[in-house]
Amino acid sequence: MADVQLTNGFCARLNNSENEEDELYNSQxxxxxxxxxxxxxxxxxxxxxxxxVIVSDGEHFQQSMLATQLNHLVEEExxxxxxxxxxxxxxxxxxxxxxxxxxxxMRVLKKEAEKIGNPTPLQLRGSSSxxxxxxxxxxxxxxxxxxSTFMNTPNVTNxxxxxxxxxxxxxxxxRGGRHAIYPIESLSPYQNHWTIKARVTAKSDIxxxxxxxxxxxxxxxxxxxxxxxxxxTAFNAAVDExxxxxxEGKVYLISKAKVNLAKKKxxxxxxxxxxxxxxxxxxxxxPDATDVPTVKFTFVDIAGxxxxxxxxxxxxxxxxxxxxxxxxxxxxxxxxxxxxxxLTVVDKSRFSVRVxxxxxxxxxxxxxxQPVVAFKGxxxxxxxxxxxxxxxxxxxxxxxxxxxxxxxxxWYDSIGAEQTYQSHTNTMPSGGGVNFDRAxxxxxxxxxxxxxxxxxxxxxxxxxxxxxxxxxxxxxxxACPTQGCGxxxxxxxxxxxxxxxxxxxxxxxxxxxxxxAVADYSGQAWFSGFNDVGKAIFDISADELMDIKExxxxxxxxxLERAIGSTYNFACRARQDNxxxxxxxxxxxxxxxxxxxREEASYLANLLLRSEWxx
DNA sequence: CCCCCCCC
Length: 615
Description:
Blueprint: H1 10-16, H2 22-26, E1 30-39, E2 50-56, E3 60-66, H3 71-75, E4 84-95, E5 98-110, E6 120-121, H4 169-175, E7 195-203, E8 207-211, E9 214-225, E10 228-235, H5 237-242, E11 251-255, E12 258-261, E13 273-277, E14 282-285, E15 313-323, E16 327-330, E17 337-346, E18 352-358, H6 359-364, E19 372-381, E20 387-398, H7 403-414, H8 444-449, E21 458-470, E22 476-479, E23 490-492, E24 495-498, E25 503-505, E26 509-512, E27 514-520, E28 523-529, H9 531-538, H10 542-551, H11 553-563, E29 567-579, E30 582-594, H12 597-613
Parallel strand pairs: 3-5, 3-6, 10-13, 18-20, 28-30
Antiparallel strand pairs: 1-2, 1-4, 2-3, 4-5, 7-9, 7-11, 8-9, 9-10, 11-14, 12-13, 15-17, 15-19, 16-17, 17-18, 19-20, 21-27, 21-29, 22-26, 23-24, 24-25, 27-28, 29-30
Helix pairs in contact: 10-11
The protein binds one DNA strand of 8 nucleotides through strand 8, strand 9, strand 16 and strand 20.
């Protein structure tokens, strides 16, 4: 390869230019990498490790950060110490008075090279002889305050420096021209003068709120480019400004929006930040943009929904077999009436699922001819086994022009229309349809002192509790051995009769009917459970346990003893029971899960991380 | 500044 020239003077220009020069920022300097250091997110905004690097222009060296989309170059060893690269896109942050080069895009010109020249640290204009911009490998002596931990602060002692200002502010505003397009992935609160070119992939209804802090209205859009996605929100006056202008599917140049930390627990998008559209935000449509990707789907088939946890976000494509009427429900939380419409959607997996549309999407849905429909970002629910809810951040595509849709259309029109489809109602474990959600674990004391299960409601809750006692009478009952029946059978002469099946059998199949006392830190309660619960506790069938009971009562009692002291996660249903003029609430187990300590620990670790984020 | 996605 021909020798490459470093862009001498680049570091000096970057650091010494009083007014920012657009030519500098539009240039593509050639530099040499002197070192790479992987730095952790250090408890602030980011969750991704970054690379702190030193670059040289042959004369001076300069501390820099790689934008995370370039991490892979280091990790795949496409760039090494002393590699020479052209920086195709960069920006600059002022961190505690020091310029920090942010490399947004680069191309390696020469991967293996010798160190060129003897670069020295820059002597900064106006700075005392003290700290240089030389980056120390050790932990910074001065940590910048919370949000600035976006990157590790270099080792500087000048703590009286003015707050960080975007480096490019002056000229960009002055010129009034368009800036370079920045990838969404590179947006951060430390860099104000960007423009993104992004497609609106989802747009919510206008929503109003009213709480102790005030009231107002807002809407959200999801913006996407090739680098990633970000959510943008407009409030009040900005709603009037942008609600009609921003249309789903279209591409816009957007600048001068505010970049805030996203609160992770409220967002499914893979972005640390979100945008607030203000009245001064600039939005310009790009009518013919073809360089911004359209929505990409990762479809899961409808049968596969049972593998996903409740609240998972997924993409589904299917045929709308049935369209429900537009109806309204009254939200328990807000007492508001909310329009809704249920669709029954089927696919080649021969499963059907109920998909609920809300608000405007429910009102505006009008396709009655069994179209192909694709959902991006639908939420998995557990109603009747599995259900889907279309969120305001989801998008609906009727007859999208994608291969999956054409295949599905052809299949449905030829054979699919005549098939039968299975619902998830009977396919989920333990039937009852209550899933265990550790975020919803309630203490037994809390459960018993709440109004759960009262006034003929069936309420569900989760509990993590330890078995204290298992009642040994009626631990199992003789049941009909026919698959899926499970009704109690009666001994008639020498055979067992099932009323439901209208059949007699030589032998019953015993099924568990467990009643047990459980306790957690707050108190104790009686839980009851059926066959799955007994099998989970004893690890043998009820037939086998009854056999032991008959032959060896001591061993049977030992087996009961052995189950004491085990802790499980339970999903339960609380239901009122009227018995001898007495009202009490009974707790039925719909799922029982052994503790997985690795998972529990990882859950707790994530909780800590989340509370860190939402501070 | 919202953070709800509801109901059965």
